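Worked example 3 (structure in, sequence out).
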């Protein structure tokens, strides 16, 4: 026998075939083509990195291996460099984003072996946006459950799980507290927006549990919807307060607490409040967004002081406690598949005075909290400020003032918007038009604005109004004069449609006659704006305005039938 020992036969790893390699390269290139346009936009807008390909889109044909590898390395570098506020601005700035592009970015970030807090915030934002774009439209007329969210997210998270994790229960408590609020003042005082971030920070890598991703996506979507509902409630209170001031003959308001002048014209305050209805996308990163909302609340405070509204105490829902400081470490020690745990907080109402100072809070839970601004207390403000208004010689009358909620005053170092142009007689929307604009805005907040359809529908009373994609975009984009003109055209058309439906039920034509008269005034304004767009050779604006104006005219002509 031979003295040699038999050696074990080494197991050869199966190498991918040429066909499998080709499929992998084709899949990687397809994903790159979906992601590249969004990263290219971020690169040019924020000067992040020089793109390897100098066009906004990659060619359909896969390039040679050298350029292919360079593009893949660039995409990987961009994965690490993009920030949540930059993604947020991208999502607000682009008129249409393909869900498959968002899906590709989410899957890239989920595949990263070592994820940073920025990766978590990016995934958090993108999942909520993806859900908003892909959820069935009829879902928005009923309660959105974890199962609903999981079903939509399974196209990006294969094992999306609707199981409710016990340690995620506080998310529902925050949502319940938000539903009890009547304005942003209560939200900021109770620090409700900070609670979601605290739970995310405490979750560690458990955040990436499929069930947790579903829970946080639902939370973010519903919280954003509640936040903008409350924002518009504050704006409505300001608008109603300004209308009441004008009715009393009050022409200026002392708004130094909001960083404005001691004699701020009521007309300019209305212009500022209109600007706030547009999504804030360009300045989410630091303190400025938080100070902007502080300024809004300070303006509401000044308007209500001018009306003589007396502050009272309210019951404001808050979450009493959150995970202790060691919760994050203990969470990391658990398995991601954990399905139970001790609830981390409970909710209870506490009494908070409206005069209490405004605490810092994020614009959304996925934005790092800015440092607290210096905010004077109400008593300090009252000792420093002179009487709030200058009154024209008009006899005062009784008032039905808006709900009495007095937010904290804000120091003079807060953001001051640029001076808007002085409104001329023909350019100021009527109160009826403003009210209709608010109702349309609130409906568009409830549902995603872009679904790949050419038309969207809103409902006012028994009237259903079809909106084109550019008209919807005028309500949810960053704005500008064109958006303002399109919004007015839509609101005038909606008022006519609503008045016509009301006439069918009541038999009275008074409201319809008034709506048609307002529509004629708006037609005159819109025709002037179309002519100006044509003179400026802004073809797109002229065409879109012209179509919206013709739809308004058609609605008015339909009332004669």
């Amino acid at each position: 026998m031979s003295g040699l020992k038999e050696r074990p036969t080494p197991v050869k790893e199966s190498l991918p075939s040429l066909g499998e390699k080709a499929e992998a390269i084709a899949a990687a290139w397809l994903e790159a083509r979906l992601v590249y346009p969004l990263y290219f936009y971020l690169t040019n807008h924020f000067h992040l990195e020089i793109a390897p390909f100098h066009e906004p889109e990659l060619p359909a044909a896969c390039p040679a291996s050298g350029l292919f590898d360079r593009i893949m390395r660039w995409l990987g570098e961009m994965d690490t460099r993009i920030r949540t506020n930059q993604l947020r601005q991208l999502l607000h700035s682009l008129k249409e984003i393909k869900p498959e592009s968002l899906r590709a970015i989410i899957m890239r970030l989920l595949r990263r072996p070592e994820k940073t807090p920025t990766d978590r915030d990016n995934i958090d934002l993108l999942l909520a946006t993806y859900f908003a774009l892909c959820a069935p439209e009829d879902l928005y007329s009923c309660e959105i459950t974890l199962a609903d969210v999981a079903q939509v997210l399974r196209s990006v998270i294969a094992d999306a799980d609707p199981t409710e994790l016990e340690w995620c229960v506080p998310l529902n408590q925050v949502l319940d507290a938000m539903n009890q609020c009547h304005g942003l003042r209560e939200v900021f005082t109770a620090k409700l927006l900070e609670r979601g971030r605290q739970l995310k920070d405490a979750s560690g890598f458990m955040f990436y549990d499929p069930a947790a991703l579903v829970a946080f996506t639902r939370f973010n979507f519903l919280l954003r919807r509640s936040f903008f509902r409350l924002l518009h409630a504050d704006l409505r209170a300001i608008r109603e307060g300004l209308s009441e001031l004008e009715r009393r003959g009050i022409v200026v308001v002392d708004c130094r607490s909001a960083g404005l002048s001691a004699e701020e014209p009521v007309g300019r305050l209305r212009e500022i409040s209109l600007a706030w209805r547009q999504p804030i996308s360009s300045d989410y990163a630091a303190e400025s967004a938080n100070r902007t909302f502080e300024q809004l609340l300070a303006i509401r405070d000044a308007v209500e002081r001018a009306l003589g509204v007396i502050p009272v105490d309210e019951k404001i829902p808050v979450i009493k406690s959150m995970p202790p400081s060691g919760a994050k470490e203990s969470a990391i020690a658990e398995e991601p598949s954990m399905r139970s745990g001790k609830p981390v907080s409970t909710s209870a109402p506490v009494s908070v005075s409206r005069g209490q100072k405004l605490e810092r809070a994020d614009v959304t839970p996925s934005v790092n909290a800015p440092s607290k601004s210096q905010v004077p207390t109400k008593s300090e403000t009252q000792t420093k400020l002179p009487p709030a208004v200058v009154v024209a010689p008009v006899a005062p009358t009784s008032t039905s003032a808006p709900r009495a909620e007095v937010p904290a005053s804000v120091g003079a170092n807060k953001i001051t918007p640029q001076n808007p142009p002085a409104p001329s007689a023909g350019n100021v929307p009527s109160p009826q038009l403003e009210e209709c604009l608010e109702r349309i805005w609130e409906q568009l907040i409830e549902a995603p604005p872009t679904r790949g359809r050419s038309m969207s529908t809103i409902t006012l009373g028994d009237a259903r109004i079809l909106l084109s994609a550019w008209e919807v975009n005028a309500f949810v984009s960053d704005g500008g004069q064109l958006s303002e003109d399109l919004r007015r055209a839509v609101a005038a058309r909606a008022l006519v449609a609503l008045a016509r439906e009301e006439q069918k039920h009541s038999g009275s034509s008074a409201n319809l006659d008034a709506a048609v008269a307002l529509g004629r005034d708006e037609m005159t304004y819109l025709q002037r704006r179309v002519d100006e767009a044509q003179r400026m050779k802004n073809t797109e604006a002229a065409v879109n305005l012209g179509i919206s104006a013709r739809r308004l005219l058609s609605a008015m002509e339909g009332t004669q039938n």
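Notes: DSSP finds 19 helices and seven strands in the chain. The beta strands are 250-253, 264-265, 313-319, 347-353, 389-391, 455-460, 463-468.
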